[in-house]
Amino acid sequence: MSNVDREVSRYGVLGQPVAHSKSPRIHAAFAKSLGQKLLYEAYEIAPDELGPSLTRFHGEGWQGFNLTLPHKTAAASLCESRTDAAEQAGAVNTLIRTATGWQGDNTDGAGLVRDLVANLGVVVKGKRVLVLGAGGAARGILAPLLAEAPSILAISNRNPWKPEEIAAAMKPLGNIVPRTHLSLKGDQFDVLLNATSAGHQGSVPRLPPGLFAPGAIAYDLNYGPASEPFLAWAKAEGASKLSDGLGMLVEQAAEAFQRWRGTRPETTAVLAGLRAG
Ligand SMILES: NC(=O)c1ccc[n+]([C@@H]2O[C@H](COP(=O)([O-])OP(=O)(O)OC[C@H]3O[C@@H](n4cnc5c(N)ncnc54)[C@H](OP(=O)(O)O)[C@@H]3O)[C@@H](O)[C@H]2O)c1
Which burial class, exposed, middle or buried, applies to 73 when counting CB atoms under 10 A from its CB (0-12, 13-18, 19+)? Predict the structure, then answer.
């Protein structure tokens, strides 16, 4: 690498697999739109290599990373500090360089709310919201959703104990109602968010019928083929509006970019470009 290259700030995404990641394309588009020069690369890193790799990257002067599967939870314990969002999520999707290590942040929740409220024009305030799933993504979106003041924020998961634990842990932030899938029978919601990975197996959480209130939106955090089973089910169940999570992906990336670079990039054209293929 030449001296000139060394002066360019370096960022990347770490995962396994990572070849499919859209993050390099998104961050290159952000940098171009702002006239900024940076390097952003995808690195395939095995789980047992994450700790040593982060030490090495720090020594080499890298400025920040995004983390994708399977590193989001493990990275939390490798950071020297974590933001409130990362603590609440129990997962880290963004690393910010400090003088002596890495600060862990989680921008998934901010990205989801931005896409839902600002891009899609969904009103959460005073609405009944149901989150499906209890993994890192579900945990990460709960606090930002609470901040939007829904009338009810319920969480339901295949493993029924996890929502109980999450609701208890997040009690200081507000009221989250843990529900079993079966107990949802007869209730209706205005916003139904799928934060499970069931779509990657071509399946949908086993839910009772009739959950969508008139005018309700079904939002799948997944995108591409993994979002198709849930959105097809939601359409058949009468959801009025459907969205996949591609907008969330772009918005969480914009949040990370802002933390690294101090400027929040425009996202509309980048999202349109991704949808165009
Ligand atoms: N758009 C974005 O920017 C974005 C950002 C983050 C995540 N995501 C997507 O969100 C999804 C969840 O991510 P995560 O990090 O939270 O994953 P995770 O920690 O592995 O959690 C997976 C969740 O899905 C549930 N689940 C898995 N298979 C299921 C099935 N067949 N039926 C019902 N529930 C099932 C699990 O339930 P149990 O507890 O019962 O196992 C768990 O609640 C992933 O597919 C990911 O790609 C998208």
Answer: middle
Is 97 a pocket residue for ligand 1 (Cβ < 6 Å)? no
Indicate the burial class of 90 (C-beta count within 10 angstroms; 0-12, 13-18, 19 or more): middle
Residue 72 a catalytic site member: yes
Whether 1 shows a pLDDT value over 50: the answer reads no
Alpha carbon distances (Å) from 122 to 96, 155, 240: 31, 19, 12
Q: State whether the beta carbon of 159 lies less than 6 angstroms from ligand 1.
A: yes
Mean pLDDT for 108-131 is: 98
Q: Dump pLDDT digits (tens) for 150-166.
A: 999 999 999 999 999 99
Yes or no: say if 211 and 237 are a contact pair by the CB < 8 Å rule: yes
Structural domains in the chain, CATH included, are 3-106+248-276 (3.40.50.10860), 109-244 (3.40.50.720)
Provide the β-strand partners of residue 217.
Answer: 191, 241
Phi and psi angles of residue 210, each rounded to the nearest 5 degrees, phi first: 85, 20
